[in-house]
Amino acid sequence: MKRLSAFVSRLCSWFKSQFTSRHLLTALIEGGRTLIAILIAYLVAFAVIGFVSDDPEMAIRWFVFGPLSSPTEFGEVLKNATPLLFAGIAACLIIKGGNFNMFTEGAFYAGGLIAALAAIYFDLSGILAIIIPLACGTLAAMLIGYIPAKLKAKYEVNEFVSSIMFNFIVMWIGVWLISNVVIDVTSGDNATAPIPDASRLRILFENTNVTTGLLIALGVAVVAYLYMFRTRFGFRLRMTGDNKAFARSVGIDVGRAGVSSQILGIGVAGLGGGLAILANYHRFNWKTLPGFGFDGFMVAIIAKNRPLLVPFAALFIGYLRSGADLMAFNTDVAQEVVQIIQGLILILVASEAFFSSAWFRGVIAKRMFRRKQLAPVGGVDDHA
Amino acid sequence: MKDGVDLDGSLVDNATAAIRDDRQFNIGPFQSDRKLDAYAKRLAERYEVRHESLREPIRHLSGGNMQKVVCGREISACKTVLIADQPTRGVDVGSVRTIHDHIELLRQHGKAILLISSDLSEIRTLCRRAIVLHQGEIVAHIDDLAAYTEEELGLYMLGLKRQRTTEAGS
After folding, report:
1. Angle between helix A232-242 and A254-280 (nearest 10)
2. Among residues A185, A294, A319, A329, which is most buried (max CB within 10 A)?
3. Are the beta carbons of B7 and A23 separated by less than 8 Å?
C-alpha cells in the first residue's frame, strides 16, 4: 500500500514535470498545426475531386469513410500502415542522429529479398522459419548500410547522395538475381520460388490481411523509444544529432554515434522489408524500389521524430492510402488523380514551415491567452 | 553557445551531459531518469538557474542562465583539471559570486584549475598564481598575486613593463 502510494505520487510528479503550462501550449500548437494542415489538405483534395468526378459526393464518401466501412477495409489500413511504421521508426533513428541516410529504401528491398531467399532455401520449420529469415534480412541490410554510414563518418562523404546510389545498386543486383539466378520459371514472372507456408506470418484477425507483423512493428516502436530516450546510447545519438560540436565537447564519439544511429535505422527498415514480404507476398517479385523508405521520412516528419507518435502517423498515411485506393476502385476518379491528391495532402501535412512557428504561436498566444500574459521564462533582466 | 549547450535539448539533457556514463545513473542499459532529474535539479538550485521546468528546451532560458548550466555541469563533473575560459562573462552579478564560490570549492578539494579571463577582479579573487599575456606573449609569471597591485598588473597587461626573460621563464 505504501509502495503503491509512493508510486502514484511519483507518477503525479512525473506528469507535472511533463505537462507544465508551456509544455501543454507547445504540444497544443504543434498538434494543432498538424491538424489544420490535414484539414486544409482534405479541402484541397475535395476540390480536386469535385473538379474531376461526376459524382463527387460518392467519391468523397469512399475516400473518407471507405476505410472505416468494414473490418476487412480497416484491416487494409493496418496492413498498409505496418511497413510505414517500420520505415517511420527507421527514419526517426536516422534523423535524430543528425543524418539523412536514404538507404532505408534499399534496406527494405534488401531485407525483403534476403528474408525471402533465406525462407525458401533454408526451409526451416516452427518459429525458426520466421526468425531466421528476418534476422538474415535485417543483418544483410545493416551490412550494406554500414558502407554509406561509415563513408560519412570517416571521409565526410555526403550520406544522402551515396545512400541513394546504394539504393539503386542494391535494387539492380536484386532484379538481376530474381531474373537470372533464383528465378522460378514456373511462376511466369521474374520472381523467386514460393515462400514456404511455415515462413508466412499468421493472420491476426479473421477476414483481414493483418498479420503478426503489426505487433512486431508496435514492439519495435516501443523499443526505439526506450533506446532513444532512456539509454545512454540514445542520449549520445540525440546530442550528436542536435549539435555535433556540443556532443564532441562533452566527450561523445560523434562518428560512432552517427554510424550506429544509421545502422540501427537501416536494420529496422530491413526488418520491415522482411516482414512485408513474409506477411503479404507469395514470392519475392519486387522489380522497383518499394518506396517505403522515402515514405518513412514523411511519417517521421509528421510524427515530429517521436517514435511513440510514429504509429499514429503511419496509421494516418495507411488510412489515406486505403481511402484513395477504394475511391479509385469504386468511382470514376482515376488512380492518377488519387496520386495527385495523396501528394498534395502529404506536402501540406509534412511541410513543417507551412505554419511558421513564430507566427502561429503569436496568433494562438494572442487569441487564447489575451488575459493571462505568459511570463517570459528565465527572466529578461539577466545581463545576458 | 555552439559548443556549450544543445539548444534543443532539455535542461536535464544539458546539465547531465558530462556525467551520463557514470555508473550511478545507469541501471543496465537504461538510465535512471529519477537520478538524472535530481542531479539536474540540484545543479539548477545551486547555480540559481531560473527555469520553469526541467524538461523545457534550454533555448527558452536566457543566455546568462544557460551559461550557469554550462559552468555548473563542468564544475560538478570535474575530475582533476578544470580549464575555465571566461566562465562568468555575461552572467549576472549574483551568479558570478556563485560560480566563483564553486570554483573556489574545487580548489579546496585539490583540483587544478586553469582560469583564462580578461576580468582582472575575477583573477584576483580566484587565483594565486598568474601568467600575464600581452599580444600572445608571456610578459610576467606571478607566483604571489596578492603582492601585486592592480596598477602593476595593468602595466604588464599593457606591455609597458615586462619581466626579464629569465624571470618570465619562457
Report:
1. 110
2. A319
3. no
pTM of the model: 0.82
Using the Cβ of B79 and the Cβ atoms of chain A, whether some distance falls under 8 Å is answered with no
Task: Check CB contact under 8 Å for A242 and B21.
Answer: no
- Taking the CA of residue A84 as centre, how many other CA atoms within 13 Å lie in the half-sphere pointing to its CB? 27
A9 touches chain B (CB under 8 A): no
Q: Which residues pair with B30 in a beta bridge?
A: A231, B27
Looking at the complex, does the CB of residue B29 fall below 8 Å from at least one CB of chain A?
yes
Q: How far is B120 from chain A (nearest CA, A)?
A: 19
A&B contacts, CB < 8 Å = 104
| Chain A nearest CA to B113, separation (Å) | 18
Taking the CA of residue A342 and the nearest CA in chain B, the distance in Å comes to 32
For residue B23, tell me if it sits in a domain: no
**Residue B158 maps to a domain:** yes
Q: Which domain holds residue B153?
A: 128-170
Selecting from B3, B8, B34 the residue whose C-beta is nearest the C-beta of A242 gives B8
Q: Structurally, how many domains does chain B consist of? A: 1
Domain annotation for chain A: domains and CATH numbers: 76-321 (1.10.3470)
The Cα–Cα gap between B145 and B167 comes to: 15
> Residue B139: helix, strand or coil by DSSP?
strand
B113 within a domain of the structure (yes/no): no
170 residues of chain B, pLDDT tens digit each: 567 888 888 888 888 888 888 888 888 888 888 888 889 988 888 888 888 888 888 888 888 888 888 888 888 888 889 998 888 887 888 888 888 988 998 889 888 999 998 888 888 888 888 998 888 888 888 888 888 888 888 888 888 888 775 555 54
